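Case study.
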Amino acid sequence: MPELGRAALVAAFGLILYAAVVGGYAAYRGRRRLLDSATNALFAAFGATAIAALVLLAALAARDFSFEYVARSTSRELPLGYTLAAFWSGQAGSLLLWLLVLTGIASAAVALNRRLVREVLPWTVPIVSAVALFFAFLLVAVASPFATQAAPADGAGMNPSLQNPYMIAHPPMLYLGYVGLTIPFAFAMAALASGRVDERWIVVTRRWTLAAWTFLGFGILLGAKWAYEEVGWGGWYAWDPVENAALMPWLVATAFLHSVMVQEKKDMLRVWNVVLVAGTFALSLFGTFLTRSGVISSIHSFTQSSIGPFFLGFIAVVAAGSIALILWRLPLLRSRTRLESLVSREAAFLYNNLFLVALALTILWGVIYPLVSEAVRGVTVSVGAPYYDFFAVVFGLPLVLLMGIGPVVAWRRASLRSLASQLAWPAGIALLTGVALLLGGAGSSPAGLVGYTLAAFVLTTIVLEFVRGTRARRSLGTSGWWAAFSGLVARNRRRYGGYIVHAAIVLLLVGAVGIGGFSTTREARLAPGESMTVEDYRLVYAGSEERRGANAQEVRAQLAVYRGDEQAGTMAAGKNRYFAEEQTSNEVGIRTDWLRGEDLFVIADQFNEDGSVYLKAIVNPLVNLIWLSGLVFVLGSAVAMWPDAREQRRLAARFAGEGAVARA
Amino acid sequence: METVALVLGALLAAACVVFVARPLLRPARGEDALRPSDPEAEARLRLLEERDRALAALKELEFDHRTGKISDEDYRALVRPLRRAAGEALRALEHEEHREREREEVDVHR
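After joint prediction, the assembly is written out as follows.
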């Protein structure tokens, strides 16, 4: 039913246009009923977009190849899970997902915050609708998923790299992150437009920002897991432009989540915070542009298209509009409070912000430099991993150090003496760790040694923060350690949820240092019966096996894995030859030792006619801590996001009181 | 199939029009104007924010002192201005509420 899909998209476009134009007029002229009508249009646009999405899903499930989109991205033999995931594997489908998530989240944010921000909301509706309008326009005029054709006998299939379970979850997670960042942007710009630049927009968007940031961070990690398993070079993050495209808004959003606390506690950094929100949103658009325009060559980019100029134009409009609004409201945004001391929590947040933004900007330069070079000088250049690694160390290590120091510095000012006494234990344990690692032979990677020493420092600080906090609550008369601990976390969810997120970053660091600094690679050509050794593993090649899979011919090198004299198990690595797609993919073998957190990673590079195989075997120490960090990260975010009934009551009373006065 | 799609599309369009037009069609209840900017309400909100900020800062300071992040000397130096700020915010709010009550009484007498 492509006609219904097209009609639903046209309806969504019309409704969003109405919400943007009439909503803007209503906000400007102060018309309540017009604003209600515009808000209803936004809600209805979500309904219409959902109908379009259902039509596309039904066409995918039925493998209706009269839909060009379905024929381009699926085939009859493609398993159902991947067939449905084709919804977001192509350009038009992913734009539809953007619009669906955006209208859904915007409707929810507007409906849930009607009472809290009556003055800001009138401008939120047209601003968020203006963003949605861009995507609705692309879907209606440039890249419709409902274009039809005479149905071919079979579809072209899906890129083999996308046929991985992590690819089912990774793009929707990223989109929830990218799109979710529209909410703080829309409320911030609405606060500027309405002149209500106090705390209200921050209070209502706090959880939305945190949720979007969590989705984006977790999505990046799922993408890394996909790259680790599917791209098969033995690494997890390659500073690919599309990976960087998601990392940049995440870094700036991280800066915002820290600096917004300074505004809440000290009424400082108001201008900085709106700049960060606008920057985060512009970077999330830039990320979508990089992924979807085909302007760059990337292992994650599967599209060549003509939407690039539209995206660039829209990003320019967003940037110009944001800058104009900020400049217009600059007098209202000026803070009356000043930094009291360079040794204080707010100063630590400021340093953290500078490093995070500097890292994001250097990554941005690395991503756009090849584009600029080609456009201006006509010279094709690429910015490689050494550039990014250098800046990741230069800005990343101080950030990790700040993660350890920041939590023990008091707000307003702290004396160096009390700071030294707070840091004595973490510094001592870090030093001991460093010496022990050096004696254990970890000096082969100086950066790794520094990384592990800093990780020990930060982890000790976090543990001590929990211990000292629990002890302080016990001294207030709370009976029992568990009651004191749970009370501590329940009453300061953002702080202790944040510490859990810090612990996740430390786990990520330990895993990344393990794989980056201490992995071992061996390569060999083996005939059946021959073996190779890597670290304490011995791999015996038993021969190759071939079988027909659901949609590919699969060939696997069968390997027996020995540790010492004992056989630890078997594993297989090989290649898939996909029928419909007529492409070959590497299917690596991974054997995980959960106790050590390490992987034995095997790539079968080449199967020879004489029965031999060319193997590359890698031992990646501690790599599984990277994936574990994703779960800890989500746990920490959930703790920080969990609603606090007392705080909700206090805020409701504050805004209700304000409303009561206004109504009087 | 095409007819079914057309009928469904027409129904969707009609439902959207009704839903969007509903606020404009229902009889007006009270004023149509959005609440205009009220300087008194804004001032009160600012005071409430200042009060909450000062009280939260005091709570945080107590906790930091208890966990050893702040020395006794720093605590004494920092607690005074915070208490003063909280007191000022509370007094200003009380004053605001008092004025409001007076205005309400005048309205009742009229």
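Observations recorded in class. The two ends of chain A are 55 Å apart (CA to CA). Residues 1-158 of chain A form one domain. We will return to this complex in the next lecture.
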